[in-house]
Amino acid sequence: MKESVGLGKNSQLGLTTLLTFAILALAWFVGFASRLFAIVRFESIIHEFDPWFNYRATHHMVQNGFYNFLNWFDERAWYPLGRIVGGTVYPGLMVTSGLIHWILDGLNFHVHIREICVFLAPTFSGLTAIATYFLTKELWSPGAGLFAACFIAITPGYTSRSVAGSYDNEGIAIFALQFTYFLWVKSLKTGSVTWAALCALSYFYMVSAWGGYVFIINLIPLHALALIIMGRYSSRLFVSYTTFYCLATILSMQIPFVGFQPVRTSEHMPAFGIFGLLQIVAAMHYARTRITRQQFLTLFVGGLTVVGGLAVVVYFALVWGGYVAPFSGRFYSLWDTGYAKIHIPIIASVSEHQPTTWVSFFFDLHITAAVFPVGLWYCIKKVNDERVFIILYAVSAVYFAGVMVRLMLTLTPAVCVLSGIAFSYTYEKYLKDDEKVPGSTGSTKSGEPRTYDKPGKSKPSSSESDDQVSVNVKTFVSVLLLIFLLMFVVHATYVTSNAYSHPSVVLQTASGNGDRLIMDDFREAYHWLRENTADEARVMSWWDYGYQIAGMANRTTLVDNNTWNNSHIALVGKAMSSNESAAYEIMRALDVDYILVIFGGVIGYSGDDINKFLWMVRIAQGEHPKDIREENYFTESGEYSVGAQASEIMLNCLMYKMSYYRFAETRVGYNQPAGFDRTRGYVIGKKDVTLDYIEEAYTTENWLVRIYKLKDLPNRPQIKPADLTVPFRGKRVAKGKNKKGILLQNESVKGKKAEAV
Amino acid sequence: MDRWKTYVRQQPRNYSMVVMFTALSPNVNCPICRPAYDEFLIVANSHRYTSSDSDRKAVYFALVDYEDSPQIFQQMNLNTAPILYHFGAKLGAKKKPQQMDFQRQGFDADAIARFIADQTEVHIRVLRPPNYTAPVVIVLLLGLVLGLLYMKRNSLDFLFNRSSWGFLCLGITFIFMSGQMWNHIRGPPFLMTNPNTRETSFIHGSTQYQLVAETYLVAILYGLITFGFILINEAADGSHDKKKKSALFAPNATALAIAGLAIVVVVFSFLLSIFRSKYRGYPYSFLFS
């Protein structure tokens, strides 16, 4: 598929270059093209949830300029708190697409910023392939680099985060990651300040793009430490690491969101510790030749112990004194796997933070998952300074990928590099002509692919065939491995097309006779909100939909996918899981105008709010244990159900009522009973749902999104002129519902008075 | 019996009683009584040492053993153990007390403390006597390793042996790629037996779930593929330097390559077929369907 083939020795260099360019260009093109499934099937649209925020932020930046973007205070999110967007966002993504937009504008290509956002990730996948080529070339050989570049262009583990429309940080961050690694390896090999400075610059871009930069700033020190322990210290390491660390730390502090974290959090302390250690080791090497052995031992063995002990003491003192923040909860959850579930339910509730099954490993990596250990094995067997790096990278990344599905993304580049090495190593032997073998063993110049496909070469002397693989078998092996590679291509295309190309804003189903049905309920509902509600209307929904409401409907939301304030989310969760009157009080306090729920019972959409409801209860319980109890929402036998056995509290909570209001009046199928929920697969527990405090405002075609309007407070009891003669007593007590209204209103009147005073 | 009447069932009281009914004596077969009792004891002790004075006077803990006073069991109409009851301060002599549901909430100390907090508003901070086993084991192991290193200080070659490091790294890779971390967090059963057909299955039929046996199988398959692939390469390498070939292990390089290839092809096809059986609708297969 991708083996480089040279035809003659004279033109070999030119041909190799040409082939390299051609293959990389093809990899770019294939990577780009295979990510366009979603565009072809649906339209050029931003996907999922987070991309909507990124798009909105980019749009804001393009409209108002970069400095206004950095100072942007978004009053339309987290009502009534607001959010300082400029200071809580990694701006790399927005700046990148803004820059492209600006350049295209300068060239008189007027493209809407949305198109740039949609196509940014596929474009960057090509750059990632090139960066991977360079990294692997430094680690092994150009041939392996080409393999690795082709792998990463199509591997599903990376495609999953970079299809067209998935406008998210990871799309550009993997490129920055690979490029930083390449520059680091390059600077380590050359010991040059220039490469190290470039590496720091690339790291700066990575910091501006993704929170995963912490992985780099811990992996590179780990590499340095491993080299020191293995006795591979060299002045090249000293120069590149010290240059990199100083510049990288200063540069990363320029990102507003990162700020002083590089000097004040524990995640960054190992890098600093290695920096110090490296100075000591350098001094040791310098002194070794100049003093006697005895002096040397006392000086450094004693000195090292003292300094090491002191460093630990100082570190803990700083942590205790509050100058350095201890490790964050997200960090703990990587090591202590039970941590998040107990302490941070909001992290545990996200599906991409779940541990990884072997199926998803295989699904995302296919043949490369099985082959990359081979590359790892040969890297260990033929270890050198820079191969230590890829070994550490692969082993640590495979651990992280096992803990969290999401971190599969960091493993994928390592897998591609190593399986590229494995395949290239094999093909180098099996495509080579046998006669060449005895002569060229010495010339292990890894710079040239030494493969020839001239069929006319003479056969090897068959007397030696005892310790050489016969030609036929060689061909056979090559062909079979080629079949595996083809299977990988087919698998990658299948996975990209079927699993990773759904915008999740637009749903697609197949009707009975195989036609494609497109359900556009989300956009229908958001459009309704945009057109029919007041501009400053506040919409309450579960946090998953916050970014979409802000991005598509342009309305104020209470909570969104930037889950920075747990108690605010818990308040929304409490409102959703309380009964109507209690929820009404909370919603009045939060100035809610509309409530939006996602309901999949009519079409059988499983990601709806009823299925997420337990997390709302759990998060609410974390903050309000007095009012919300998880066990109250279970049936007698301890199951989660909205069917006939569901508990009374469950059947009266706001979420149930809003989801199933008037649901029993419709029939989902010809022979289904009324109130049959397709997602859950049974008849709901309570069919006559009545609403007192809210009213239905809009329900989309397939009932996927339901919007409710909060009713105003009931008026004071009106006294008609005819009734004026009626004695006053008893009237206020009689109307139960109004009584509450009066009380509330009195309170609010009191509040106003207090304000006036 | 007297104390039972005086402290628990008499009115008026200004305190709540949390009573565990259990059967600790060895001639009653109750395997979970002992751990439940231990947890109960942890809560009671934490309450005793950490709660404020007023709290301490509001809640008392008591234990009823079947051995000592079966009549109380009869009186309460109990025939199972262990059971945790909460007798509120206002609870009359004949009323049924609040029972803690061990089935749903479990019986560890935190759950008991939560139950008490729910019932009485007294929050008990559970202080577990620290478990020294894990640190001790780690220290012992570390000591053992260091001791071994010290004993073998003259021949530390194995530390520089690339094969052993290679095996270590590959081992880690296979462990995590076969989803052992998932097993560790979710704790799935080893095998699954279908209650209807009595068929034992090693492989769970869904992509979201996996059985322990199946992950071991997958780890072995990955290992075999890697082994086969290395074999292919070693076969070709063997022709380069004849010194490496020992007398014992000198099969034909061609045979070696074919063997490696066969392993890779067959095992990978097998892996693919397992994957297919889990991922419904996956269209591609190789050798096996």
Poorly predicted runs of 5 or more residues of chain B: 240-248
Number of domains of chain B: 2
- Average pLDDT over all residues of chain B: 78
- Report the CATH superfamily of the largest domain in chain B: Glutaredoxin
By helix and strand content of chain B, what is the structural category? Answer: alpha+beta
Rg calc of chain B: 31 Å
List the strand order in the largest sheet of chain B. Answer: 2-1-3-4
Number of helices of chain B: 12
CATH topology of the domain at 519-714 in chain A: Rossmann fold
Shape estimate of chain B:
elongated
Quote the beta fraction of chain A: 5-15%
Family (chain B): Belongs to the OST3/OST6 family.
Subcellular location (chain B): Endoplasmic reticulum membrane
Membrane topology (chain B): Multi-pass membrane protein
Transmembrane segments (chain B): 132-151, 163-182, 215-232, 253-275
What does this structure look like?
Chain A: Its EC number is 2.4.99.18. Chain A: Keywords: Endoplasmic reticulum, Glycoprotein, Glycosyltransferase, Magnesium, Manganese, Membrane, Metal-binding, Transferase, Transmembrane, Transmembrane helix. Chain A: It is found in: Endoplasmic reticulum membrane. The complex is a heterodimer of chains A (about 750) and B (about 290). By secondary structure, chain A is mainly alpha-helical. Chain A has a domain of about 200 residues: Rossmann fold, CATH 3.40.50. In chain A, the strands form four sheets. Chain A has a five-stranded mixed β-sheet, sandwiched between helices. A two-stranded antiparallel ribbon of chain A has the order 1-2. In chain A, strand 3 and strand 4 form a beta hairpin. Chain A starts with 11 loop residues before the first helix and ends with a helix. Chain B has about 290 residues and is α+β, with helices and mostly antiparallel strands. Chain B folds into two domains: about 120 residues, Glutaredoxin (3-Layer(aba) Sandwich), CATH 3.40.30.10; about 120 residues, no CATH class. A four-stranded mixed β-sheet of chain B has the order 2-1-3-4, sandwiched between helices. Chain B has a two-stranded antiparallel sheet with strand order 5-6. In chain B, helix 2 crosses helix 6 and helix 9 packs antiparallel against helix 11. Chain B is elongated and about 90 Å long. About 5% of the residues of chain B have low confidence. At the A-B interface, helix 19, helix 20, helix 21, helix 22 and helix 24 of A face helix 5, helix 9, helix 10, helix 11 and helix 12 of B.
